[in-house]
Amino acid sequence: MKGLSLLAVAALAQAITPGARDTSGSFADNEDVSRQSILGEDHSVPKNRPNIVFILVDDQDLQMDSLNYTPRTMRHIAEQGAIYRNHFVTTALCCPSRVSLWTGKQAHNTNVTEIYPPYGGYPKFVAEGHNDNWLPLWLQDGGYDTYYTGKLFNAHTVDNYHTPFANGFNASDFVLDPYTYQYLRPVYQRNHDPPVSYEGQHTVDVLAEKTRGFLDDALDGDRPFFLGIAPVAPHSNLEMGDEEDTTSFRFSAPIPATRHQHLFPDAKVPRTPNFNPDHPSGVSWISTLPQQNESSIAYNDEFYRNRLRALQAVDELVEDIVQRLDDANALDNTYIFYTSDNGYHIGQHRLHPGKECGFEEDIRVPMFVRGPGISPGTEVDSVTTHIDLAPTIFRIAGLPPKDEFDGLAIPLTASEIHQDQLDRHEHVNVEYWGKAGFEGAFGRAPDGGPATFYNNTYKALRLISPDFNLYYSVWCSHEHQLYDLTTDPYQLHNLYPITTTNSTPPTPTPSTMIGPHQIEKLITRLDALLLILKSCQGTTCIHPWRELHPAGDVNSLREALDEKFDAFYNAQVKVRFGWCELGYILEAEGGQGPVVYGDGDGGWSEWV
């Protein structure tokens, strides 16, 4: 990658004119806008169908109280709509999470599991065929105009943005690598035009101007619209040592706009029980981390403050969007989503700034929706994930759900919320492959680059119900985690006691209880559920118990704990990896098929 040296001189010399935009709302050489509508020969769509604005921030935490510092977002979206208390990402890394969000599929079905090739990034997204089969194209076919600005995927660069162009948008303006995370040196690429450098301007302010232009275009159109807005804040800032060598870089604290640099001088990472604990926690590389010293903690507190400061420009943008919709008399007919691609940790479990773990800090994210039929101040306790958002947008748009969706639309109205409480599933399938790393000055590798930890490959299950609040994971190293978040909300006490040798996977040693249930009995059920979810597709991801119990008499962990199933679950195939891999390699994933209960004689049989 040659960076800006590859860009046309004329493009770089373009003046940046506030408010400048292509008022046509489309561009003639973009073939994807000519796709036939599924609505028939008459492509017109009633204008009163709801609009959709989707704000997707980068790396915003929920567990570290960042929402206390975004009053406009809370006032205009959360308090005027629904707050989803148990909303999770299924892969705690930006590119896999975004691809899952925009396709409605788990990462093991998209096969985009990393941020860079060969296992992830924009080239992998294209190679897997998703550029011809994803949400913006489906919405265009369904009668919507579609717009997008900001970050799309990692490895979407100044070199490959046109090989091919991202399909599905009437108009787009993407921020591109390797400048995506350079707050004061962003490079954006509009429609099919060459990239343009906005050096010296703050990336969120540039994004805000582009958002205003697209919003005006969308409101002037004759069809309902989808507008995706993806600021990079509060992601870390990228410092490149050499443009000709993209391996020479480091991440530092995000850079706020000048007007926000003085804010929150006394803010600190919340000192929760899992913040820099006296004893190590977790498994694998996490269990080997040293306790942070005073200098590290002070640095990370300032890192945290700059995250909060960087979010202020996003908070202002949210208010601007709402005001413009209101001024156009479109607010009452527009759904506004606000969420993050993954969570974030700083100091919890002795971790330096970063994500990629299965802890609550990394997988539980902010999620708010306001719009028609949603009562202000609604709180939703149902378990929801990013996999559910494409089906949700389909329902809003009046489109039939796709069989390939791995998720279920989230409840929006009071009646949907009530029904959800009766029959929605209780599980989240969490998965990760490859590497983990730290951001910031501390915890770096000996050469000064980002610290990298390999074999950060695990399958996990998050389960929340009236009876249970559990996290269970299996690592490629054969290590396990089991946390009861009812009694241990900070995930400090792994309840999976093990005996292990160098040649065999660990074996549970029952030594305690979770409520009235023996741990060994719970583990057999959790492991079986995870076995289904780790390879699920479509409705199996929504109703995994039916794969184990085809008769339909088991639909929850509580029901599966009936003692009559004890022998069945003790004989079940166990979740285990063949070996550690950096990406989704089926041969390394271990057993794929469960034993199925009920073969007609009251026993069970191998799944086929």
Give the strand content.
15-25%
Kindly report the spatial arrangement of strands forming the biggest sheet.
6-5-4-3-7-1-10-11-2-12
Radius of gyration, CA atoms, in whole angstroms: 24 Å
Integer count of domains? 2
Q: What is the terminal separation in angstroms?
A: 47 Å
What's the CATH topology label of the largest domain? Alkaline Phosphatase, subunit A
CATH class division of the largest domain: Alpha Beta
Assigned CATH superfamily of the largest domain:
Alkaline Phosphatase, subunit A
Distinct helical segment count: 16
In one word, what is the shape?
globular
DSSP strand count: 24
**Average pLDDT taken over every residue:** 89
The parts where pLDDT drops under 50 for at least 5 residues are 1-45, 499-504
Description:
The protein is of the alpha+beta class and 608 residues long. The protein is built from 16 helices and 24 strands. The protein has helices at residues 9-12, 71-78, 94-103, 107-110, 121-127, 135-141, 203-220, 294-327, 360-363, 389-397, 414-423, 519-533, 539-542, 545-548, 557-560, 566-570; strands spanning 51-57, 82-88, 145-150, 171-175, 187-190, 196-197, 225-230, 237-240, 249-252, 334-340, 367-370, 378-385, 427-432, 436-437, 452-453, 458-464, 469-475, 480-484, 498-499, 507-508, 513-514, 517-518, 595-597, 604-606. The strands form seven sheets. Strands 6-5-4-3-7-1-10-11-2-12 form a ten-stranded mixed β-sheet, with helices on both faces. A four-stranded antiparallel β-sheet has the order 13-16-17-18, covered by helices on one side. It has a two-stranded antiparallel sheet with strand order 8-9. A hairpin with an 8-residue loop joins β8 and β9 (249-252). α2 (71-78) crosses α8 (294-327) and α7 (203-220) packs parallel to α8. The model is unreliable at 1-45 and 499-504 (pLDDT under 50).
